[in-house]
Structures are given as structure tokens and as C-alpha cells.
Write a structure and sequence with these properties.
Blueprint lengths: L1 E5 L2 E5 L2 H8 L5 E6 L8 E2 L2 E2 L5 H18 E10 L5 H9 L3 E9 L15 E8 L14 E2 L9 E2 L6 E2 L3 E2 L4 E3 L19 H11 L5 E4 L6 H8 L3 E6 L2 H10 L5 E2 L2 E2 L6 H18 L10
Parallel strand pairs: 2-15, 3-6, 3-14, 7-13, 14-15
Antiparallel strand pairs: 1-2, 4-5, 6-8, 7-8, 9-12, 10-11, 16-17
Helix pairs in contact: 1-2, 2-3, 4-5
The structure holds S-adenosylmethionine (SAM).
S-adenosylmethionine binds next to strand 15.
Length: 296
């Protein structure tokens, strides 16, 4: 296990269960966001996201879920994701330990290859749970969205002493339409299941205050730590794959150099093409004036 730390942001390179057990004191964390491997066969830099059986996956998951629960402060919150088919088991397990306040559906569209003979899966479930349903952080004013009721004009409330427009801002419901991270987006990193900053932005804003500690035991590209930093929270991110640790060190501004390697965002293929085109142009510009005008 290796630790990196700067300005209230810690990265732990190691196994989640080990790190949670040995590095994080009980009742010390305000908000946990856990986005583990889903047991669906993804490839995390060579590490297989596949357990020998559903039972094996669940018994591993129950270990880190139990640890996450014990790391939460008495007024802390936990958000957890997994595949749709595993979520009912997480739900039953957590219901016995925490209060589940929302069962969120993160919905997105896809233009890629989709199922043709059944209804393809275009959502991922998220559970939002708190330790104490009478004492937890929920900054509703910081996450308001425009209500989309289908009305084409602003409705006026005539029951008020002075007729007033209805307030159309509301706390989001439990279906969140947020696009997945695509290759051409600025935030894209080389990881198969990177979560969008917009998703974490809503979670971190709603369920933590500036200065709180946000913990992510399966950090991947460190979206959670990145968003926590932007929003003035502290963060602890755990990740087992060195390649992803390097992304985190760069994204959370902890280190620019790692073992002599400059940590840079991987250039997109289209950026490489763009920059070689610019180079050609510069070479051309450096040549003496023998171009079109000189022939006239
Ligand atoms: C679903 S991804 C998380 C993606 C992340 N939320 C993001 O926005 O990029 C799960 C991550 O867990 C990591 N992982 C797998 N097994 C682990 C373990 N035992 N301990 C810590 N991290 C692990 C994988 O390398 C992968 O990056």
C-alpha cells in the first residue's frame, strides 16, 4: 500500500478492504461514494471484473460495504452503485444497517450497438443511504433544477395576494438524465467505466459541506476526488491499479511527475492529427517566399 497526500486530498494505492481496514478511522467520513467493479466482465487495465460466482461477488461486496458503513460519521451518507442485477442484494444488505432514502436511476442514451431482440439496458442504479434519517446533510438549494412539466408558458398562482409566477425550480427527482463520458469530452480519461463529473457534482453538493471528507474506495479516474476538490471538500480515494493512480495524482493536483514520468492527459487521436497539421503549417511558414504570390 502506498499513500500520496496534498492539501487535504489523499490517494491510497492498494486494495479497498485493506485500506479501509487499516487507514480510515471508524466514524470519520462525511460522505462515501462507492462505484465498485460490477462483476460484468469489464477490463480494468488487465484486472478482470469477474468473480467465480454471484455468491463470491456478493460476499466480497458485503465486506467492503460493512466497512464503509462503519467509517461513516453518525450523520454521514453513502451512495453506492453496482449492476442492476446485483442491486437488490445490496439494497437488502444495506436496509438492515442504514436508512435508504432514494433509489436513483442514472439514465443515459447511447448511439452505439444496442440490443435488437430485447430492451437494452440504458441505466445504472444508485442507492442513497444515511446513518441517521433525522440528522444528515442535504443541501437542497445547491442542486435545484428546472421542473420540466410540459407546460409551454409560465403558470401564475392567482391565490397569492399578488399573482406570482409559480417557482419552477425543484430538487431533482430520482431519475437523473446525465450523459455518459464520451471520448471527445474534455473530462475523458482512459478508463472503461469513468463516471461523469456532473453525476458526482450533484452527489457531493447535496450530501456534504465545504471542508467535509469525501471517501471513494474504488476511485478509477478519481472523478469523486476531483469534484470534491473543485467544491472545496477534502477527499480520500482508494484504487488498486497503478495506471489509474497516475490519473488521480494528475487530476487531483498531487503530483505532476511519477517515477520520472510526466503525468499528462493522454492526447486524443484527433488532437494528434490537429497538432501535426499545425506543425506542417509552421514548416511551410518558415520557407522563403516562393508560394502563390511570388509567381505573379
Ligand atoms: C467502476 S470503476 C470506478 C470508476 C470511477 N467511479 C470513475 O469515475 O472513474 C471500479 C474501479 O475499482 C478498481 N478496483 C478493482 N478492485 C479493487 C480493489 N480490490 N480495491 C481497490 N480498487 C479496486 C478498478 O481498478 C476500477 O478502477
Amino acid at each position: 500500500m502506498k499513500l500520496f497526500e496534498k492539501n487535504g486530498h489523499a490517494i491510497i494505492w492498494g486494495d479497498a478492504i485493506d485500506a479501509l481496514t487499516t487507514q480510515i478511522p471508524d466514524r470519520s467520513i462525511d460522505l462515501v461514494f462507492a462505484d465498485p467493479p460490477y462483476n460484468i466482465g469489464k477490463n480494468f487495465n488487465g484486472r478482470k471484473d469477474r468473480w467465480p460466482s454471484d455468491e463470491a461477488y456478493l460476499s466480497w461486496s458485503y465486506q467492503w460495504l460493512e466497512l464503509c458503513v462503519s467509517k461513516l460519521k453518525p450523520n454521514g451518507s453513502l451512495y453506492v452503485m453496482t449492476a442492476t442485477q446485483n442491486m437488490p442484494f445490496f439494497d437488502i444488505f444495506l436496509r438492515q444497517r442504514l436508512n435508504i432514502l432514494s433509489r436513483i436511476v442514472w439514465a443515459y442514451d447511447s448511439s452505439g450497438v444496442q440490443a435488437r431482440n430485447y430492451f437494452g439496458s440504458l441505466y445504472e442504479p444508485i442507492l442513497f443511504c444515511v446513518k441517521n434519517k433525522n440528522n444528515y446533510t442535504f443541501n437542497s438549494d445547491d442542486i435545484l433544477v428546472e421542473a420540466r412539466t410540459g407546460a409551454t408558458r409560465k403558470l401564475i398562482d392567482y391565490r397569492k395576494p399578488v399573482p406570482t409566477m409559480y417557482n419552477t425550480k425543484k430538487v431533482p427527482g430520482n431519475v437523473w438524465h446525465i450523459p455518459r463520458v464520451r471520448y471527445r469530452m474534455d473530462e475523458y480519461e482512459n478508463h472503461p467505466t469513468q463516471k461523469p463529473t456532473a453525476l458526482l457534482d450533484r452527489i457531493v453538493r447535496a450530501s456534504s459541506k465545504p471542508g467535509d471528507i469525501v471517501l471513494d474506495p474504488f476511485s478509477g479516474t478519481f472523478t469523486t476526488s476531483y469534484v470534491a476538490q473543485v467544491l472545496g471538500r477534502d477527499s480520500i480515494g482508494i484504487e488498486i491499479e497503478e495506471e489509474y493512480i497516475k490519473i488521480g495524482l494528475r487530476r487531483v493536483n498531487i503530483q505532476e511527475i511519477y517515477n520520472g514520468e510526466a503525468l499528462r492527459r493522454e492526447p486524443r487521436t484527433y488532437e494528434q492529427q490537429d497538432s501535426s497539421a499545425q506543425q506542417q503549417l509552421k514548416i511551410f511558414e518558415r520557407r522563403p517566399q516562393w508560394n502563390t504570390t511570388s509567381h505573379q
